[in-house]
Design brief:
Layout (H helix, E strand, L loop, with lengths): L15 E7 L3 H14 L4 E8 L5 H9 L2 H6 E6 L3 H12 L4 E4 L4 E3 L4 H11 L3 E5 L3 E4 L9 H4 L5 E4 L9 E4 L2 E2 L3 E4 H7 L12 H11 L3 E4 L8 E3 L11 H25 L6 E3 L4 H29 L1
Parallel strand pairs: 1-2, 1-4, 2-3, 6-12
Antiparallel strand pairs: 4-11, 5-13, 6-11, 7-8, 7-10, 9-12, 9-14
Helix pairs in contact: 8-9
Length: about 300
């Protein structure tokens, strides 16, 4: 669990630190780390935050950290039932990379082209501070009160997007806020701070971070890298499919806090023109994009044919 140092052979800080909180999810975490070992490359550190696990996670991490790959690329620390926000902060606090990624243990890296593209894109666009690898959200002003958690996700108030097609296969789209997984410049965190623990245990913390980063002068974006085949998200394996009433009450409290802080900014800025950035993909990344477009087109064609057959 010792901090990473230059004697790991990098000659300096890594390009990317990946922060992964985990709780009682050993089997899924194994597959998660397998993906980073296979596809993550050499200019990388993975920081796992073990949150008081009562399964075999701690023993597994100790064993994995002693492997050749683990010695060079894996760090892990222990927390005592701190939950996702505080665990993410703990990992980001010790991360040494120029870029820091918030990842989950049920997300599996699937392509070696993804990390080089992320690094190249940040290098090409200094105004880009934070971006989501799944989809982003845009906030709109709504005068109606927020009485339930469903009011927080009212389409009039919060709209999900990966940008308009077909250009969203090839470019990043500016948005207001992000969802996991997301990647941020270390310089942004140094300027505005980590996730605000007023939003603990989780939810709306990354939305607040996005607005603070935007307020500091950077832009926030999204690109659908899961659709592009860069990674696969298994889905939550530690939280039930139907959140508890207590959990939803926390979501409502945090959502109200976010809107208390930022509704004036939302009203002032929601109508601005949104920027796009061309992806800085490798040849492998562009090749994978073409294959995914072809697959999507074939799927659309099959669906159209099935609809036509049904109508006959």
């Amino acid at each position: 669990m010792a901090a990473a140092t230059d004697d790991r052979g990098r000659g300096g800080p890594p390009a990317l630190s990946v922060v992964i909180p985990t709780f009682n999810n050993e089997a899924v975490l194994r597959e998660c780390l397998d993906g980073w070992e296979r596809f993550g490359g050499n200019d990388l550190e993975v920081v796992v935050v073990e949150d008081g696990c009562r399964d075999g996670t701690a023993a597994f991490l100790a064993q994995r950290a002693a492997t050749p790959w683990g010695t060079r690329h894996l760090r892990w620390i222990h927390q005592d039932d701190a939950h996702e926000l505080r665990c993410t902060n703990a990992g980001m606090a010790i991360a040494t990379g120029h870029l820091v990624m918030a990842w989950q243990d049920d997300m599996f890296l699937r392509a070696g082209w993804l990390v080089p593209e992320l690094c190249a894109t940040f290098a090409a666009y200094p105004d880009l501070g934070l971006w989501s690898l799944s989809r982003g959200l845009n906030c709109l002003p709504v005068e109606d009160p927020i009485d339930t958690w469903e009011d927080l996700i009212d389409w009039r108030r919060l709209q999900s997007t990966i940008g308009p097609g077909p250009g969203n296969w090839f470019r990043l789209q500016e948005v207001d806020i992000v969802i996991r997984p997301w990647i941020v410049r270390r310089a942004c965190l140094d300027r505005v701070g980590l996730l605000d623990e007023a939003f603990r245990p989780t939810e709306w913390d990354e939305a607040d971070l996005a607005y603070r980063i935007r307020q500091a002068g950077w832009r926030v974006a999204t690109c659908g890298y899961e659709r592009l085949g860069g990674y696969y998200h298994l889905g939550s394996t530690t939280i039930g499919a139907r959140p508890s009433a207590k959990y939803l009450a926390g979501v409502l409290r945090n959502g109200r806090l976010f809107h208390e802080r930022w509704d004036a900014t939302i009203a002032r800025e929601h109508g601005r023109r949104r920027r796009t950035w061309m992806r800085r993909a490798t040849m492998a990344g562009w090749g994978a994009t073409v294959a995914r477009i072809a697959r999507a087109a074939a799927g659309s064609l099959r669906t159209s044919e099935q609809v036509a057959d049904t109508a006959r």
